[in-house]
Design brief:
By secondary structure, the first copy, chain A, is an alpha/beta fold. The first copy, chain A, has six helices and eleven strands. In chain A, strand 7 and strand 8 form a beta hairpin. The longest helix of chain A is centred in the middle third of the chain and has 16 residues, at about 150-165. The radius of gyration of chain A is 20 Å and the shape is elongated. Chains in contact: A-B, A-C, A-D, B-C, B-D, C-D. Chains A, B, C, D: Belongs to the DapB family. Chains A, B, C, D: This is 4-hydroxy-tetrahydrodipicolinate reductase. Chains A, B, C, D: It is found in: Cytoplasm.
């Protein structure tokens, strides 16, 4: 226990945060430290009690929380969405200011589901070898945006790797009404299904004459994010990733 | 052999017609009779040499061909597309004129793939028991129209059976851009994928809280239509379906 | 509210029972009545306070519970497994003894997931029209039996409907080691997958030359049973099903 | 045309060989050279008329053919199956004898379908990040062996990468009859479906708590091998792969 990673959770009463608290309690080599909620003062989280803080709050609060934690000398794993280049840049600067002898780290990932991250990476790697590629994402009907951010990311990754390989544009003989053909993201058709009973799913279809490759990631519930969160905590605690790191694929040996 | 059904093929050099000629040669209880091409005179097809004519030509020619065959006293199984209510009505009238002692028949089907017909029927039967239903059709990229006629038919069948059961409209919280949500056909979202390597496929997704039913029909090549064509020939030759019959589901015991 | 169906739950603290209690509270036209646990006396459940009792307990207790409730004049919807012909026969006799002026009912179903019931029915209806049919069931790795009872039921239903239609046996050219070909149930190959993250899923594959029909039912969690339970409660409360009824398909208009 | 790769086909009248001849005729940057059949003398294939020979014959003939072509100074792309370590070793020695100033090459692949090769590689890369992994392969019912060689290869690759990562063995609570659980290959369960209408398909399921990754490769017909064959011809003709190379993944940038 003495060598356990001490992990504090910021946003501990939220849906994701409370799942992280449960996952920590069951994980080998980790000890839950503080459970901080929106009403608490973040100042209590310090290197004296915490090796890594996991932050799952809301887009409006996350940048402030991360900057504060960095200032206090704590490394952070961030699961809240809503990050853009400007915000990332602020975190980078805050970390540079702190860079003394230690190895303080911030890790931010748009998606902690390992299956989703792998699907994204594999789709991009495979795309140059196929004539056609389309993306179907499927979610519960309460989701506000369509297509999902993950599907847009996958489509762009496919387009980028095909562009680098100088692939020809994909064949599409559709004439007339194209409403059923979905949204075109960087030349890749993306379809969004909204179905009661589903959670978060993505399917990438890649086709050549006579063959198809299908890569599908299913996230059935919040527990799907926990292996990714625990992996990130271990990697950040190792000290091997000083500074800012973005994306769970960094930690996967692909 | 003496009791074999004698089957002539009209459009025997086309892609579908030549497949029918091959299928007939291999089918039990059937004998290929005449193989008629676009240059031939349809007048050679008569009850003396033919029990059932199978017509696979082009939308512009099919009505004329069928009326001519009916006039000559031959029953017809029609696989050519492009039929509408007006054309069907003309065939009905022509058959009524002929209705003497016999049992002359015309059978027209928009789709002869048994899997596609069953998917369509099952989707309609299941739809009232689910909160959500969407249709994804997937075809080769040379297809000119999107979504497919079959997918539109399935969406309408789903909408109709839900309407009769007074189902609530489907939940969809999408805000903003809905381009990725596909084409809405009678309230049912229909998505069209165009992928090199595919032929003709349809998937119906039905969802309730905590569960999903997926019904998928794959037509890998033209041979998928042959069991349906042979079934129709047998049923029409039986004399049990005098007059005009539309749709392969008529012959399926569902 | 005065006309609400009053529903008591027997086994109210179990995983399924507690889900039923929650579902009742949210259902229109129903009022939760008594919540009975293993320690309570079933004698409290009577027509004075209950229109329908829902019984979700354990195989050892269910027959006794149902007989007792029948004796007290209460109609029952039973979700506990472990029923066989002998036990069903005892319930039938108990109901016959009671048959006076009223319309007391017992309904027993091996599976309340509507998607699973529909997949089973559709597979049996479709099977005679295909050359090949196989069943794949997929469950969480904690499941003790393989294949699942539902998959065995589906395989037998496929075999039965093919037998009635005098279908030829399915082609299988496998020579040598057949361990990978799964378990053969009445001539139908059944495959069982055990995968962390899954709950309960079944896929039926039906094939002809050039085509495939796939019917898949996914049960993601316990909530998938609730629509079926509520449907059964409504049907039993209607008085239209006096005596013993087995199987949710009875209530589906297929 | 002057710089086109001149490609001869050995086994030009076989099913695969004749497909290669057609594919060559349509490929940019390649010119069909000789079409050699079983009755012809291989001695006619020489560097004077051929840059690369493609060999698709039968397991009994392929080693002799390749050794002869190597002796004549011709580089070879081999699609015939049935190779083992002993045969590969003979080819390696033959190539070493020839190693003069040039860059003569032999390339042998058990599977030329890019989708199948990618599925195999991705499954092995992903496997260490999941608790469970199983393989389902699906083929036409005329196939003699079960499971397929490709599925065995995939299962072994999964087992090997999990072994290197010191993964725990997969959970499986099945008690009693395990016939439905398929064949266990190096600890990985492999299921084989045989279905009329299918050609060659493989699906790898990987599961963690709350999530699933599915990787599926569909080979619908022989044309699926042609992109892989043409890729191999280009790579071998480039001179960048002197000596013996095994496996199409060598040429893929993964």
């Amino acid at each position: 226990m003495g060598n356990d990673i001490r992990v504090s959770v910021v946003g501990a009463q939220g849906r994701m945060g409370s799942s992280v608290v449960s996952a920590l309690a069951a994980a080998e080599g980790m000890t839950p430290a503080l459970a901080v909620t929106a009403d608490d003062d973040l100042g209590v989280v310090t290197p004296d009690n915490t090796d890594v803080a996991v932050e799952f709050t809301v887009p409006d609060a996350t940048l402030g929380n991360v900057l504060k934690l960095v200032e206090q000398g704590v490394s952070v794993v961030v699961g809240t969405t809503g990050w853009d280049d400007g915000k990332l840049s602020q975190v980078r600067k805050a970390l540079e200011k702190r860079s003394g002898p230690g190895s303080q780290s911030v890790f931010i990932a748009p998606n902690f589901a390992i299956s989703a991250v792998l699907a994204d990476v594999f789709a991009a790697k495979a795309a140059p070898y196929f004539t056609s590629a389309e993306v179907i994402e499927l979610h519960h009907p309460d989701k506000l945006d369509a297509p999902s951010g993950t599907a847009i990311h996958t489509a762009r990754a496919i387009a980028s790797s095909r562009g680098q390989a100088r692939c020809a544009s994909m064949p599409d003989g559709t004439q007339g009404n194209t409403a059923s053909r979905g949204q075109v993201v960087d030349g890749v058709h993306v379809h969004a299904v909204r179905l009661e009973g589903l959670n978060a799913h993505e399917e990438v279809l890649l086709g050549n004459a006579g063959e198809q490759l299908v890569i599908r990631a299913d996230s059935f519930d919040r527990s799907s994010f926990m292996p990714g969160v625990l992996l990130a905590v271990r990697k950040i605690a190792s000290g091997d990733y000083p500074g800012l790191t973005v994306g769970l694929d960094t930690f996967l040996d692909l």
